[in-house]
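Treating backbone geometry as a discrete language has practical consequences that deserve illustration. Part of our work consisted of pairing the sequence of a single chain with a tokenised description of its backbone. What the numbers capture is local backbone geometry rather than side-chain detail. For completeness, the protein is quoted in full, as a sequence line and a line of structure tokens:
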Amino acid sequence: MNATVKKAVLRAYLRKGSILFAVVIGLSASSASAVFAAATAWVNSDFSQIRLIAVRDKDGQGYQAGLHIRLEPGWKTYWRSPGDSGVPTVVDWSASRNVSVSGMKWPVPHRSVVAGYQSFVYQDEVVLPVSVASKVSVTSKGTGENLRLVADVNYAVCREICVPLQAALSLDLKPGSSGRGDKVHLRLLEKYRGLVPVNRNLPGLGLTSVVLVDGSGSQTLKVKIESDVKFVHPDMFIEAPQPFAFSVPTIDIDPSGKQATFAFVVSGGRNKLSLAGIEILVTVAEAGQAIEVAHRLSKN
């Protein structure tokens, strides 16, 4: 990722002046061995550790991989839509050799509210899974070609201040053999893939209505969800194009405990744009289940 893009990413997510950014810190790690190592070495900073992990698919034709981030106590990193402030993780895979990388997935985040500002974050640890396909034929004896997964990572970790970090990670993949730590890394990947929302309603959890209420100079988005069991701790995240933003929601759970209505105050930016006609993405999380559903709001 070039310097212009990096600066643009930072500018795009420095909102409301609520976060102080320190200098960017660059780090690197690689792993190359006759045996597929399954992970790079940890790249350490004072605030976090980061590495790549990978395991072979069962058919031996590709790999499941992930960006594994561990955070020091009190520190956090950001979801794809960071909220009122923050920077999402951005990864450039273009230097990878003989592999293609697709579909970085985002497990459901945690909502953090400080001094009225909300951000959508990960704490303690997260794995961002990706799928990796070989561009050359893979056999049980190997390809004779080097397969290398290379990630140029830009991410931020925050506490009282936000520190942008860079990490250069490189992992040689060994076709036709298992890697050291395969079972451990597979469990990690399965855990965090299980926290990635599915893009549809589930039999026991779903959206039932999405309504935009226009008031005098204000907009409120009301989203109703339903479960086949009582809600425990439901949460919801709304994504929309700039300049739209959404308040911390109020949540009304009906007496049965199986229906909940989330109400968000909508900001349309300086020009107070209407959300009517705009497509939004609704992410719902509840008791280990998560869904995300796109919905275009009707025009009045």
